[in-house]
TrEMBL record:
Domain J: 4-69
Pfam family membership, one: DnaJ
Protein name: Chaperone protein DnaJ
Taxonomic lineage from the root: Bacteria, Pseudomonadati, Campylobacterota, Epsilonproteobacteria, Campylobacterales
Name of the coding gene: dnaJ
Major localisation: cytoplasm
Length: 373
């Protein structure tokens, strides 16, 4: 059984216009395609909600519908698809904010500046520059409002109302039964246009000026961090000083070292005899060479910490650690003498008979005994 328009909006037949409008807002939000992507049932219900509202919000159409039903509306001028006095932009932006994708046909874009006062740039530094800090020359370009037109971009300093949007900054675009509102292309959403461009800035309202600073980059800075320099960014017409310059730091990778927070990581190759004997090995750190005493029988991939050999924390000044992971290396080729020496070593552990063959059962027992001590 087909629902009538009152049932679609979940209201009674005696509902007044305000109740109808509120019900429409509620149901339109509930079934809107952007909230129910891929849901065909919701899409159909959304169409019915709009159809019901168009009829019930219009006194003449509602009167005909109440007396004759949908049959009585056949042949009515305009058909279905209009939205009466309800602005979809108002409905959806009131619930989701202006970023939902609709604008109000009666809402004029807020006039602002042609560019932001603050300026964001990026600069690259080396791994060691980040660790130890450095002084770096930074070149950049900032915007300064045109003094001839006072930032308006117009020769006479005045702006005219955009004839395409009537000064609203937005235009309606109809797609099927829906009307979408988008920013006016001619005035870029400002609602105003320039008839005679300023000869100095060519209508931009600003001039671009090259500048540079000597930036002190602190020890321990990490990739992605920002440094702020006050009063070095863009200049606006109604401001007594320039904005702030934000410099995002990008730290280049290093061939030897990997950084995680305040710790430095390296992989150090170790000959198998050094690991077996627990030798002292040399480790390259960011501050030079350091000695690392391996334990007897050090294992492959085992990690060791060199305290206070990492990066200085940019906030509290504490030094991180240098984490060393050893990678045990074995010779790929052996001389006859080296082979004999290794066989003798193998025999000394009781792992081989005179012919050099290891019995698997005795090997298992030997290995098991190592871990029992």
């Amino acid at each position: 059984m087909e629902l009538n328009y009152y049932e679609i909006l979940e209201i009674s037949q005696t509902s007044d216009k305000e109740t109808i409008k509120k019900a429409y807002r509620k149901m339109a939000l509930k079934y809107h395609p952007d909230r129910n992507q891929g849901d065909k049932e919701a899409e159909e219900k959304f169409k019915l909600v709009n159809e019901a509202y168009e009829v019930l919000s219009n006194d003449e159409k509602r009167s005909i519908y109440d007396r004759y039903g949908k049959e009585g509306l056949k042949g009515q001028a305009g058909g279905f698809g209009g939205f009466g006095d309800v602005d979809l932009g108002d409905i959806f932006s009131s619930f989701f904010g202006d970023g939902f994708g609709f604008g109000s046909s009666t809402r004029k874009k807020e006039k602002g500046n042609k560019y932001p006062q603050d300026l964001k740039i990026t600069t690259k530094i080396s791994f060691k520059e980040a660790v130890f800090g450095c002084k770096k020359k930074i070149d950049f370009t900032y915007k300064s409002f045109c003094k001839s037109c006072k930032g308006s971009g117009s020769e006479n300093g005045k702006l005219d109302t955009c004839p395409h949007c009537g000064g609203k900054g937005q235009v309606g675009v109809r797609q099927g039964f829906m009307t979408f509102v988008q920013s006016c292309d001619h005035c870029k959403g400002s609602g105003q246009i320039i008839k005679d461009k300023c000869k100095t800035c060519h209508g931009n309202g600003y001039e671009e000026i090259k500048d540079h600073i000597e930036l002190d980059i602190p020890e321990g800075i990490d990739s992605g961090m920002n440094l702020r320099v006050q009063n070095k960014a863009n200049e606006l017409p109604n401001s007594s000083q320039r904005g702030d310059l934000y410099i995002k730091i990008i730290v280049e990778d290093d061939d030897k070292f990997i950084r995680h927070d305040d710790d430095i990581y390296t992989i150090v190759p170790v000959f198998f005899t050094q690991a077996a004997l627990g030798k002292i090995i040399k480790v390259s750190t960011i501050r030079g060479e350091a000695d690392l005493k391996l334990p007897v029988g050090a294992k492959d991939k085992q990690k060791f910490e060199l305290a206070n050999e990492g990066v200085k924390n940019i906030h509290n000044g504490k030094l991180g650690s240098h984490i060393v992971q050893i990678e045990i290396k074995f010779p790929k080729t052996l001389t006859d003498e080296q082979k004999n020496l290794l066989l003798q070593l193998e025999k000394s552990f009781g792992l081989a008979d005179e012919e050099g063959f290891i019995e698997q059962e005795s090997l298992f027992d030997k290995i098991k005994s190592w871990f029992s001590h």
